[in-house]
Specification:
Elements: H1 25-29, E1 36-39, H2 51-64, E2 69-75, H3 82-102, E3 110-116, H4 125-128, E4 130-136, H5 140-149, E5 154-157, H6 163-166, E6 188-192, H7 197-207, E7 214-218, E8 221-226, H8 229-248, E9 253-255, E10 261-263, E11 268-270, E12 274-278, E13 289-293, H9 302-308, E14 313-318, E15 321-328, E16 331-335, H10 346-350, H11 358-370
Parallel strand pairs: 2-3, 13-14
Antiparallel strand pairs: 1-4, 2-4, 3-5, 6-8, 7-8, 7-11, 9-12, 10-11, 12-13, 14-15, 15-16
Helix pairs in contact: 8-11
């Protein structure tokens, strides 16, 4: 499972305007801080033959300053689409990181700042095909702020951090990333605002097939969440017990896990903890039932997302209680029982969530279902 800190995209949502040919904020303010720069050929992420010499100063600095991060600003020339150039910039940064780690720099000391074609441009396109390396002691939130100021597209890192550590900066960037309460067993959650829908799509593409971070989007608010062990355990137990009930009652039901549900016209997208299609028609475009585990406060309005996406029923688990919301006439109404599975005793189901293993929980729940009334 990847924590949020292994893949966190910053999507240029509040970037200051910059004119072509201007230097980035850090470049103009701190030119002496540049450790090195690697140049690339057109449409290529292949490292040049002289890369060891180009990165020598960076390797030496990283070795003697393990407390500092090495930021890789990855750029492309203005030719091509934004999405293609984001991918190319990531490949260039990955090539430089591999060279650095081969030379002994820890991977978790390296941070990517991906600009693609949207960063400041130099006089000649060939000068834009580069990865520039910087040292910093700044909190990650400040690195994000710098990247936003230069029209950056994404920031990624591997060193595990808590939300509190991410925001440990006096700069105003912290207020743009409100998050829920942080406790050692809580989910890691970051929420960004004023994010265009197209950038939500880019974020999904950057993450690829990985299961984390999970994402939710509503009217420009983008949440990235890495679930805790307790969160994952609870949602898995809930899903398995629902499936036991369906099997015992001969109900046709199929799980679709964290199916990415999204609708550009609705400006809403979400990835449920669990979701199901119930009945013989398994070709529906939306699940009939979605289940959400509320482990940490501070989330965006997920029920509104499900309403816009026309999901018929949503269950929220919080503090050992399942709350059922049934969609009717375009609005959700709280119900005592599931409309889709009316014979399911949800209070009974929740009694088995504390069992030490899923196997025991399923076995005991099955026995309870088979017991005479």
């Amino acid at each position: 499972m990847k924590p949020v800190s292994t893949l966190f995209a910053v999507l240029g949502v509040t970037a200051a305007a910059m004119t072509p040919g201007a230097a980035t904020a850090r470049e103009s303010a701190n030119p002496s801080n540049v450790l090195g720069e690697v140049k690339f050929q057109f449409d290529s992420s292949a490292l040049p033959a002289e890369v060891e010499q180009q990165l020598g100063a960076t390797v030496s600095f990283a070795t003697t300053h393990p407390d500092q991060r090495i930021v890789l600003d990855a750029h492309c020339d203005p030719i091509g689409t934004p999405a293609y150039n984001v991918g190319l910039a990531i490949r260039r940064a990955e090539a430089v990181r591999e060279q650095l780690t081969t030379a002994g720099v820890p991977a978790d000391q390296i941070v990517f700042a991906i600009y693609g074609k949207d960063g400041a441009h130099r006089a000649r396109p060939a000068e834009d095909r580069r990865v520039t390396l910087w040292p910093t002691r700044e909190p990650l939130a400040a690195v994000v702020d710098h990247t936003l100021a230069g029209h950056g597209t994404a920031v990624t890192w591997q060193r595990p951090v808590t939300v509190a550590q991410f925001e440990a900066t006096p700069q105003p960037v912290a207020s743009r990333f409100p998050a829920g309460e942080y406790v050692p067993t809580a989910d890691e959650r970051i929420v960004m605002y004023n994010v265009p829908w197209s950038h939500f799509e880019v974020q999904l593409a950057l993450r690829g097939d990985a299961s984390s971070p999970r994402m939710a989007y509503l009217d420009g608010a983008l949440e990235l969440m890495s679930p805790s062990k307790g969160h994952e355990r609870t949602k898995s137990y809930l899903g398995r017990l629902v499936e036991v009930f369906a099997l015992e009652r001969d109900i046709t039901l199929s799980p679709y896990g964290g199916w990415t549900l999204k609708g550009p016209p609705e400006l809403a997208g979400i990835e449920p903890d669990e979701c199901y299609i119930i009945g013989p028609d398994q070709d529906k475009e939306r699940p009939d039932l979605a289940i959400e585990v509320i482990w940490t406060s501070g989330s965006i309005d997920k029920l509104e997302i499900y309403r816009r996406l026309n999901v018929g029923e949503v269950w929220f688990w919080k503090n050992d209680v399942l709350t059922v919301h049934v969609l009717s006439a375009g609005r959700y109404h709280t119900a005592d029982r599931s409309a889709l599975l009316p014979a399911l005793d949800l209070a009974l189901l929740c009694k088995f969530l504390d069992r030490p293993s899923a196997t025991q929980a399923m076995r005991e729940f099955r026995d309870a279902l088979r017991a005479p009334p």
